[in-house]
Model the fold of this input.
Amino acid sequence: MRSGSRIFAAALAVAALASAGVLAAGTERPLTQQQYIEIPGIGRIPIPLPPGARVFSPQRRPAPLAPEATPERQPEVALSSLDDLIRRLSLAESEEEESALSQAIGRLWARSGSPTADLLLRRAMAAASLGADSLALALFDHIVALEPAWAEALVGRAHARVALGDLDSAVRDLESALLLDPRRFDALGALGALREREGASARALEAYRRARALDPRREEWRKAEERLRLEVEGRDI
Done:
């Protein structure tokens, strides 16, 4: 795979989006401050950010990235830890334990094994947190192109699409993420909410139940399952 050409294309696309004024659409905050994104092998690419933002500030440049990893992208110890964390999550005895375990799982999910993809993910999440949803979506598009088998990129892109009102595409991204990793309880919970929103109560109930089988202490999913169970299956006689 020619990662250099893909990185260069990603950088050009981000710069083109910013210069074309894509970020001014919808409810996004106006981006006026000039900052930079560091792309390995390319250098600084100028992009605008909200006033006061320091995410891409030259004064806080990230440390140089190591060369691309070998084909073994996720060490066995990481996979073993993920299996153990998910098992422990299903047995969590308190909300504090549930929260700590789900955050630890999220950190493992956020590692692709590719320094470039991981860097772009951080940039996409920063853009989303600043309300720059179009930029976030553009970055997630490039991440998915670089790492099509990484469920985290699809889940992130689904959230960006929800923010922009493209719910059908968001559902497709979540379903694709679950094909790659059926244990993505966050994708199942989001899918349940979207299906409930579109009136597909039975399918929403199925998604919530699958999510709760992995993370049974999530209160909003418990309430949603109970509400939809009564609607779909009725009260017990």
Q: What stands out?
A: Strands lie at 33-39, 43-49.
